[in-house]
Amino acid sequence: MVIISTQKHQTATVSSKMSEYHNKAHLKRLQNGVNINRHLQPAQRQNKISNLPQFRQALAHEHPNLPRDNIKLSPNMPPTPPPSPEMSKYERILKIGQGTFGEVYKVKSKYDNQILAMKSIKYKERAEGLPINLVREIKILKQTDNKNIIKLVDVFQHFNNIHLVLEFCHHDLAGILSNQRISFKPSEIKSLMKQLMNALFYIHFHNVIHRDLKPANILITKSGVLKLTDFGLARQVGSKYQSKPNSLTTRVVTLWYRAPELLLGDRSYSTAIDLWSVGCIMAEMWTRHAIMKGESEVKQLEICENWCGNICPQSWPGVEKLELFQKLNFSKGDQKRKVKERLRAVVKDSAALELIDNLLSLDPKNRIDADNALNHDYFWSDPMPCEDLKEKFEKISDSHFEFLDEARRKREEFEMRKLLESKKKNGVNYNGYFDRVY
What we know:
It is a single chain. By secondary structure, the chain is of the alpha+beta class. It folds into four domains: about 70 residues, no CATH class; about 80 residues, Phosphorylase Kinase, domain 1 (2-Layer Sandwich), CATH 3.30.200.20; about 220 residues, Orthogonal Bundle (Transferase(Phosphotransferase), domain 1); about 35 residues. It contains 15 helices and 13 strands. The strands form four sheets. Strands 4-5-6-8-7 form a five-stranded antiparallel β-sheet. Strands 2-1-3 form a three-stranded antiparallel β-sheet. A hairpin with a 2-residue loop joins strand 7 and strand 8. Helix 6 runs antiparallel to helix 8 and helix 8 packs antiparallel against helix 11. The longest helix has 24 residues.
């Protein structure tokens, strides 16, 4: 039973069945892309919210004046929701991803044998409701309609997991880049980067920052269509979506792809943080490894300086106003910008070097945006972007995901060690062979 305090000497009770009914109704509306608050007047919302404890956090975020501390959970509340019949519609085939959020599976629909992906998110019943990031992810995916953004097929709750059913893609870019046997022509790299820029242009036009761009979150279908995925950290920005300025968290984006303004504590950043990540990813298309691999935020800033020159008001006007700039001792010497110099040996295309250099601008105001990037000479000079990557990716027999390739590599490593041990017993010397292969 849920006990809801409305005043100091007054309480109202709502049965757990009623709460469950409202929670399911809200989840159903999310599935259908409907905002349940849209049809309510502000005065009615406060009354309505008391019957929706599961979604209190999400709604209080939209309406910060609503009280958030008047819900208490009764010890009699059922600890686990009932199973969902929706789960029986899908058959699990293979785990293809894992993280702190939960797991991702390749699944098959029992109705039409369609292959899909199921993202299972761990969720504990709590008074403040579903995590706000999950609510945002579902809403954003329901609202997007672009060929380069993953499509949401279904959403449901099963026991203590929320399941997002998505279209299936055969690879992620991290898995592809980790396989040295898969190489790309300049026109093929250009095609993939153009598709990624197209996805970014679309979400940025709709005021959405992805906030977690990295190769593992870029999927590729068997037909060679790139799909941007994992909107768990995504956020709509602007006065319409933010209750107050300077309120964005800086704890976003995987460290190696994190823009310098985030590392310096800027809480009013823009879509430019995604473009920095794209600059790192674009360089990785040639290097086949992350170019800025810091072990900590301070070390990451040092690497940024080493690549992009001094972080100072001369190269980045206004940086001195950022929270952490004064607390960190940046080099006083004249550190030159070395982006083009360091990549010239592997990136032979001068226009590609120029675009990467523009994407990795320290000053976010000088960083090229997705619209201008799509009009950059790189995409309009020979060789032109490959129009069809289907033939390229149909030749790749296995699926390549970062999670699977890491497991595959460890398994092959173990088997190779066993083989070498057996050879040693027979007097065969294989010193150094293992390191050459792996």
